[in-house]
Design goal:
211 residues; alpha/beta; Metallo-beta-lactamase, Chain A; six-stranded mixed beta sheet
Length: 211
């Protein structure tokens, strides 16, 4: 399994393309520039099997419509945020001047709970990690030592909690009870900025002091 980070949109949200030797692929968080994602897939002869959303804020879902207009693939999101894809007030796109309203009216597949999830030939361990948003999800690939965590945990920081449904105490509990239990060498493929590791954040993240 190979992972390619593709920053997308005005906020440079990290989208992650995961693909294997069969040329199958899944894409985490196409935040914008869906046409760019489709072009990359075609140029590299990759077969997209699923779009997976760690959460449904506008800067993580803005490219879904453009991808789905070209490729008939399922879109997965936590059931608590299904309506967020259709509602700019919930996904936040109506809150920021200059940001186009983001709405996706297509059919989506909903996720809930924890445990093994399969998308085509890809298998992940799914964790519910709310706090940044009520339906935030993290997806762990043990063999590759990587967790796709959205906006839960950053290098030296944590996700913001001032948007609808955010709660810092809940977020810190999610990080402590779910992510920090992963092996220290686990790469945190997060939504913005550079990747980090679980071990590095245990040692130096100021928001996690006392946990």
């Amino acid at each position: 399994m190979q992972v390619t980070r593709i920053p997308l949109g005005p906020l440079q949200t990290n989208g992650f393309l995961v693909h294997n030797e069969k040329n199958d692929a899944v894409f985490f968080d196409p935040g914008s520039d869906g046409e760019k994602v489709v072009s990359f897939l075609k140029e590299n002869d990759l077969n997209l099997k699923a779009i997976i959303l760690t959460h449904a804020h506008f800067d993580h879902i803005g490219g879904v419509e453009a991808i789905r207009s070209e490729l008939d693939v399922p879109v997965y999101v936590h059931e608590k945020e299904e309506e967020w894809l259709r509602d700019p007030a919930l996904n936040g796109s109506s809150r920021f001047p200059g940001i186009p309203l983001v709405q996706f009216a297509g059919v989506v597949e909903t996720l809930r709970g924890e445990g093994k999830v399969t998308f085509g030939s890809f298998v992940f361990q799914m964790f519910e990690t709310p706090g940044h948003s009520p339906g935030s999800l993290s997806f762990y690939a043990a063999e590759q030592n990587v967790v796709f965590s959205g906006d839960v945990l950053f290098q030296g920081g944590i996700g913001r909690t001032d948007l609808p449904g955010g709660d810092q105490e809940t977020l810190l509990a999610s990080i402590h009870n779910k992510l920090l239990d992963l092996p220290d060498e686990t790469v945190v493929a997060n939504g913005h900025g550079p990747e980090t590791t679980i071990g590095a954040e245990k040692e130096s993240n100021p928001f996690l002091n006392g946990f």
